[in-house]
Amino acid sequence: MLFESLSEKLQDAFKKLRGKGRLTEKDVKDVMREVRLALLEADVNFRIVKSFIQTVTEKAIGGSVLESVTPGQQVIKIVHDEMVNLLGASHSNLTFSSKPPTVFMMVGLNGAGKTTTTGKLGVHLRKQGKKPLFAACDVYRPAAVKQLQILGNSVDIPVFEAGIDLSPEVIAKKAIDFAVDNHYDTVILDTAGRFHINEELMEELLRIKRQIRPQEILLVVDAMTGQDAVTVADTFNQSLGIDGVILSKLDSDTRGGAALSVRSVTGKPIKFAALGEKMSDLEPFYPDRMASRILGMGDVLSLVEKAQQAFDEKEAVEMEKRLRSNDFDLDDFLNQLRQIKKMGSLKSILNMIPGLGQQVKIKDLDVDDSVVNHTEAIISSMTPKERRNPTILNNSRKRRVAKGSGRSVQEVNKLLKQFEDMKRMLRDIGGMGGKSAKGRGGGKFNVPFTGR
Predict the structure, then answer these.
(1) pTM of the predicted protein model
(2) HEC secondary structure over the chain
(3) Are residues 326 and 276 in the same domain?
(4) In terms of domains, do 289 and 323 share one?
(5) Is the pLDDT of residue 441 over 50?
(6) Average pLDDT over residues 171-178
(7) How many distinct structural domains can be found in the chain?
C-alpha cells in the first residue's frame, strides 16, 4: 500500500507526542531522531533528510510551540507543512500551447512504465476535453510500436506510426503534421528508452527536443526504485532539461524515497502519480494531500473526487428513490458494489479517511478485496428474477448459484442474510422517521442516500 512502511513508522513516532500537555526540547529531539531514521529507511536522500530534520527541530523547539496548549499537535503540523514544501508546496498543472497541437514528450528508462503512462496521460487529457494523438517514436525496442498500438486501441486513442526506418525526430514531425491536418489538439510522443542512461540516448532525445520544441518534457520514473529514481531524474534534468516528473507504480511504493526526494534534487515538480494498473489510474500530484496520506491524516478531497468520478448522478437519484420506497434489490446492491470498485481497493479508500490511520493500522484491518469479487460472482450467477426477489431462492436454486459462481452454499446464505439485515435496517430507519414525522403532522422519512 502507498507509503505503508514510512507512514507506519512516522505514526508510531508521533504517538509519543499526542496527548502530552507539555513537551521538552529533549522530547522533540527524541521524536525527530525516530523521524530521521524512518526517512532514511524510506530511502530519502540523506542531505534532504538532514535539512528537513534541522528545519523542523528549529521550528518545533521555539517557545510558542513548547508552551502551547497542544504542543504535540503543533509539532506534527510543522512536520506536515515542511513535508508539503519538500513535495513541491503546490500542485503544478500541465501547460498548453496557445496554438495547437500541444506536444508532450515522454522520456524515461526502459521498465519505468513510460508507454503505459503515455496511455494513462492520454485518457486523463481526454477527460479534460482534449483530443489526443499518440506518436510511436521508439524505433529500437522490439514490438514497441505494436505495444503502443494495442494500448491505443484499448483506450480508443489513435496512434501515429511511420515504421522503424525513419529517425525518431522525423516521425515526431510527421505526427505533428498529421495532428494539424486531422484536428488533434494534443500529441504525446512515446520516445525510446534504455536500460541505463548513456550518451547515445541523450543525444537522440536532444535531437527530438531541438526539432520539435515540445511544450513539456515529462520524465517517467519508477517510484519503487527509490534513490535510483532520484538519480535518473537528476541526470535527465541535467542533460535534457525536463519540465515535470510522473511517478509510476507509486501505489506499490511502501517507502516513499522517490516522492520525497525528486522535487528537492531536480527542482522540477511531480505532476502526476500512477496509482494502479487501470488506464484511469493516473492522479494529479497534490503535495498537501500526499503529505496528509503519509502522516496518516487521510485525504478527503481525493476521496470525494474519486466518488464523484465513480458514481453517476442520475443513478444516484434513482437509487435514492428506490431506497425511499424500500425497493432496493440485489441488482441495486451489485451496481453500488461495482461503482465502489471503480474507486480502487478498499484499503486505499480507508487510507483516505481522515484520522482513521491514526487510530488503527490500515494494513492490519481484515479487508479482503476478493470478498467483493466473490459477492459480485454470486449475484451475477442469479437470474434477473432471483435478484429482484431473493426470497424465491430455495435450496436447489442456492446450489445452482453456488456452483455457477464457484463459491459455497454457505457463502450464498451469508450474502443473502447480510442483504436482508441491511434492508431491515433501512426499513427500521424509515419507520422511526415516519413515527417521528407523524408527531409533527405526518410526512415521509427520506433516506439520505445520494451515492456520494
Answers:
(1) 0.68
(2) CCCHHHHHHHHHHHCCCCCCCCCCHHHHHHHHHHHHHHHHHCCCCHHHHHHHHHHHHHHHCCHHHHCCCCHHHHHHHHHHHHHHHHHCCCCCCCCCCCCCCEEEEEECCCCCCHHHHHHHHHHHHHHCCCCEEEEECCCCCCCHHHHHHHHHHHHCCCEECCCCCCCHHHHHHHHHHHHHHCCCCEEEEECCCCCCCCHHHHHHHHHHHHHHCCCEEEEEEEHHHCHHHHHHHHHHHHHCCCCEEEEECHHHCCCCHHHHHHHHHHCCCEEEEECCCCCCCEEECCHHHHHHHHCCCCCHHHHHHHHHHHCCHHHHHHHHHHHHCCCCCHHHHHHHHHHHHHCCCHHHHHHCCCCHHHHCCHHHCCCCHHHHHHHHHHHHCCCHHHHHCHHHCCHHHHHHHHHHHCCCHHHHHHHHHHHHHHHHHHHHHHHHHHHHHHCCCCCCCCCCCCCC
(3) no
(4) no
(5) no
(6) 96
(7) 3
